[in-house]
TrEMBL record:
Matches recorded under Gene3D superfamilies: Ribonuclease H-like superfamily/Ribonuclease H
Name of the protein: DUF5641 domain-containing protein
Signal peptide interval: none
InterPro entries listed in its UniProt record: DUF5641, RNaseH-like_sf, RNaseH_sf
Record-annotated DUF5641 domain positions: 106-148
Origin: domain of life: Eukaryota
Any GO MF annotation of the entry: nucleic acid binding
PANTHER family membership: GAG-LIKE PROTEIN, PHD-TYPE DOMAIN-CONTAINING PROTEIN
Species in which this protein is naturally found: Trichinella patagoniensis
């Protein structure tokens, strides 16, 4: 069995893990805004969080190719389980789960609506972070008298 080697970011240096910290922050913000006042049972929240985990671990880490013969882009799931995530595990049924078909359909629609809102919110916030930004060390045009 392979051993897991844990690597931690440098103490008192949050900028070392800025990329994933920003990803976590954007997901937490989206969760807070969409699920803040939602009434979810524990198994529904578990399902939503598993879906979220799937989204994050299936996002491409490399550029997508337009060549149909090119391999699929690498995702975090490739490093975790060796392939893309195809489906998520179904949580075990509990005593608090609804039992009749109409209440199951109603809860499922509600959960899908929340997931749609969460996805849209996260995309709005996450895609902005993917834009390339120039660093302040680049030499640019210096302001001259009369520019303002």
């Amino acid at each position: 069995m392979r051993q897991i080697e844990w690597k931690y970011s440098t103490d008192r240096a949050p900028w070392c893990g800025g990329y994933w910290e920003r990803l976590v922050r954007s997901m937490k913000n989206a969760l807070r805004k969409v699920l803040g006042k939602a009434l979810l049972r524990s198994w529904e929240l578990h399902t939503v969080l598993c879906e979220l985990e799937g989204w994050i671990n299936d996002r491409p880490l490399t550029l997508l190719s337009e060549d149909p013969h090119n391999c699929a882009p690498l995702t975090p799931a490739h490093f975790l389980i060796g392939r893309e995530l195809a489906s998520l595990p179904i949580p075990a049924a509990s005593a608090s789960a609804p039992t009749n078909a109409s209440s199951l359909r109603k809860r499922w629609r509600y959960q899908q609506l929340l997931m749609k809102h969460l996805w849209n919110r996260w995309l709005e916030e996450y895609l902005v972070t993917l834009t390339s930004r120039g660093k302040w060390t680049k030499i640019g045009r210096q302001p001259e008298k009369g520019d303002l």
